[in-house]
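Hi all, posting the design record for the shared folder.

TITLE: backbone redesign
STEP: 1 of 1
STRUCTURE INPUT:
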């Protein structure tokens, strides 16, 4: 199939429309309507192109969008996936008002990941009239829930969603990402005994116990993590992200909590990572019998992702990147995406590829280079033209 070229003004209008639609994840501060309105907009666009389109209700009012473009009789299916939700508007109160300054389009989700969403929809617009020339079917998935738990992609993968390879739209500066980390998010609790703050020796201070936990995690656990490395993603890491405890200033605190974000390598299992922290706390308790610490809550266990360099989706993506962008160097990143669920639960080899930089995602002045969005349209179309050929 001959190369196709995107219309910059059409892509600007499409992305601006998407930014104007409030799609803050309902679990986040300030959310109002969730993914329903943007899902309906995307579904209507896909139906207008003649695609077989359905809304997959994952939670009430929070659907995935599934749209299939039938190729020229191929037995292969390429999945194009982009999430519909964004992070909060609290730190970007005018985030639903798209603003173009030079080549930068500002707005909530412009980078993460409505730029990639617009590019995939733009690619479908270009491909639909040429569908008979495609060597594969193209299945588009607009997923809900990525910014919190990836529930939309997980639902697709565990309810019979199938594809031979997937491109996941996340900001990568148009670099093909073939490996990324997962995450284990959990909470550690220390338990003490309350008492009057004027006689602290009669109580058992849970915050002081937590100080022992933190010291152990930094001095003993963190050096062990530095020894765990992936050639593309780097070392395993932990972030001691949130700490709280106590009742009021004149009471010895009887409980304290520490929330941890542990980045999981593609070669690790999140459940095993969690077990390693349970074992580490048991080791600490043996060393310091007065410390009563345990993992008491798990927020998220998400696997990493790694695609084989010889897989069809990687080869098609690298060839397309070379043709459209002029470079094709596979890379790894420390953040996670919906590719985790598609790969681990659905067995779908994935590449993460999209316009914009992760450095702009979630910021108070989020923006995406419009030229990269336009280039991404052509890149996604080129991958479809090569996949299964």
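Okay, here is what came back for every position:
SEQUENCE:
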């Amino acid at each position: 199939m001959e190369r196709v070229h995107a219309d910059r003004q059409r892509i600007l209008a499409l992305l601006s429309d998407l930014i104007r639609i409030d799609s803050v994840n309902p679990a986040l501060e300030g959310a109002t309507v969730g993914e329903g309105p943007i899902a309906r907009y995307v579904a209507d666009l896909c139906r207008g192109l003649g695609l077989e389109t359905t809304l997959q209700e994952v939670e009430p009012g929070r659907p995935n969008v599934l749209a299939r473009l039938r190729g020229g009789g191929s037995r292969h299916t390429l999945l194009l996936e982009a999430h519909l939700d964004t992070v909060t508007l609290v730190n970007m109160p005018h985030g639903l008002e798209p603003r173009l300054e030079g080549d930068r389009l500002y707005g909530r989700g412009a980078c993460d990941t409505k730029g990639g969403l617009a590019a995939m929809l733009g690619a479908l617009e270009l491909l639909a009239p040429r569908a008979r020339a495609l060597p594969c079917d193209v299945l588009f998935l607009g997923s809900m829930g990525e910014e919190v738990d990836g529930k939309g992609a997980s639902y697709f993968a565990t309810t019979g969603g199938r594809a031979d390879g997937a491109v996941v739209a996340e900001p990568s500066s148009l670099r093909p990402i073939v490996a990324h980390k997962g995450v284990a998010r959990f909470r550690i609790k220390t338990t003490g005994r309350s008492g009057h703050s004027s006689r602290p020796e009669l109580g058992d201070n849970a915050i002081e116990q937590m100080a022992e936990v933190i010291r152990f995690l930094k001095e003993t656990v963190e050096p062990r993590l530095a020894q765990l490395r992936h050639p593309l993603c780097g070392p395993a890491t932990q972030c001691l992200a949130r700490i709280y405890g106590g009742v009021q200033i004149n009471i010895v605190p009887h409980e304290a909590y520490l929330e941890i974000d542990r980045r999981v390598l593609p070669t690790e299992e999140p459940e095993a990572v969690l077990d390693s922290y349970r074992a580490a706390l048991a080791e600490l308790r043996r060393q310091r019998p007065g410390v009563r610490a345990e993992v008491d809550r798990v927020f998220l266990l998400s696997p990493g992702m790694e695609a084989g360099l010889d897989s069809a989706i990687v080869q098609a993506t690298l060839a397309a990147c070379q043709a459209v962008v002029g470079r094709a160097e596979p890379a790894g990143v420390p953040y996670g995406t919906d590719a985790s669920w598609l790969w681990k639960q659905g067995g779908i080899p994935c590449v993460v590829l999209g316009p914009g930089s992760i450095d702009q995602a979630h910021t108070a002045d989020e923006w995406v280079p419009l030229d990269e969005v336009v280039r991404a349209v052509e890149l996604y179309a080129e991958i479809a033209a090569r996949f299964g050929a």
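COMMENT: The longest strand covers residues 182-191.
Let me know if anyone wants the other runs.
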